[in-house]
Design a protein that fits this description.
Blueprint: E1 2-8, E2 13-23, E3 26-37, H1 41-48, H2 53-73, E4 77-82, H3 84-88, H4 92-103, E5 107-109, H5 112-123, E6 131-137, E7 142-148, E8 151-158, H6 162-166, H7 172-187, E9 193-198, H8 200-209, E10 216-218, H9 219-230, H10 234-239, H11 245-248, H12 251-265, E11 269-271, H13 277-289, E12 296-299
Parallel strand pairs: 1-4, 3-12, 4-5, 6-9, 9-11
Antiparallel strand pairs: 1-2, 2-3, 6-7, 7-8, 10-11
Helix pairs in contact: 2-4, 5-13, 7-12, 8-9, 8-12, 9-12
Length: about 300
């Protein structure tokens, strides 16, 4: 079975094509193709409230390319999601409708809760018996989810994100709202909370911070990495660290959110499982078509 997932974010648009391998009671998700394009729809939406004609044209060209790949791979199931940039834009729905009519790709505009639910489908595979705070920082929104063991008990979405911060569209009152929510629901309730981080920026921060032999880093290491990045010029970020341009300018704003969440919640460590919305979409598609009862997911 081959699955295709499209994730339309505020910073980038992603396509992942996955093959599902089943052997006895084990399921393996094998990545066949992954394409990420830095369209940055959030730049338009968080400054003007709508997607520009220029980016509307580029978006349609990109989705046309994705449609060609999907057809070539002869996939069995497709699911596409659009998050905060499309959700908040004045002309986002008409653009999604244009793609549906012209390309036959039915994209669903999801809210923060639905986005969190998709990611949670794969996050649960990384959890043990402890208490966890899942932090997903995107370009336009930050999703917080609280777990006791593998059971999610609380979630909240905030209009804080890397691109939104870059465009100075993040409001101080939203930062305060997030901190107060964390203090009330997490800091005053748990003494042993561990963070779980998802999103492209935390993956890169983790890569820059560790030797890859562990799946977690502590808050002190994350802050040290953040300070190191602040000390470098844009040219050094691009050439010395070889960051992509669309990563170099948002990685520090994203790190500020992760650091603030960890400090406020009291989390001293963050696990980085390297999964995201696209993985959640694939798992959702498989789960919808083939129940996973008595089966074990061995790889994602």
């Amino acid at each position: 079975m081959k699955l295709a997932a499209i994730d339309i974010g505020s910073n980038a648009v992603r396509l992942q094509i996955t093959k599902v391998l089943e052997y006895k009671n084990e399921i393996t998700f094998k990545k066949l193709e992954y394409v990420r394009f830095p369209l940055r729809l959030g730049h338009d939406v968080f400054t003007t409230g709508r997607i520009s004609e220029y980016n509307k044209e580029r978006f349609y060209k990109l989705l046309t390319a994705f449609k060609n790949l999907i057809d070539l791979y002869e996939i069995d199931a497709f699911f596409g999601c659009a998050t905060s940039a499309i959700r908040e834009s004045e002309n986002g729905r008409s653009l999604i409708e244009h793609v549906r009519e012209g390309l036959g790709l039915d994209i669903k505009i999801i809210n923060g809760q639905e986005e969190a639910e998709m990611i949670n489908k794969v996050i649960g595979l990384s959890l043990g018996k402890g208490n966890y705070l899942h932090v997903d920082v995107g370009g336009g929104s930050t999703e917080l989810n609280v777990y006791e063991g593998k059971q999610k008990i609380l979630s909240k979405s905030f209009k804080l994100g890397s691109v939104r911060s870059l465009e100075r569209s993040d409001k101080p009152e939203m930062w305060e709202e997030m901190k107060q929510w964390i203090k009330i629901n997490i800091a005053n309730r748990y003494d042993d909370i561990c963070a779980i981080g998802t999103g492209g920026n935390i993956n890169k921060l983790f890569e820059l911070s560790t030797d890859g032999k562990t799946k977690q880093m502590d808050l002190e290491t994350l802050i040290a990495t953040q300070q190191k990045l602040r000390s470098l010029s844009n040219d050094e970020l691009l050439n010395k660290l070889q960051l992509n341009p669309d990563r170099a300018d948002v990685i520090i704003p994203a790190s500020e959110i992760y650091v603030e969440v960890m400090r406020t919640s009291g989390a001293q460590n963050i696990i980085v499982p390297d999964v995201g919305l696209k993985d959640g979409i694939n798992f959702h598609m498989y789960e919808s078509n083939y129940p996973t009862a008595n089966k074990v997911i061995v790889k994602n």
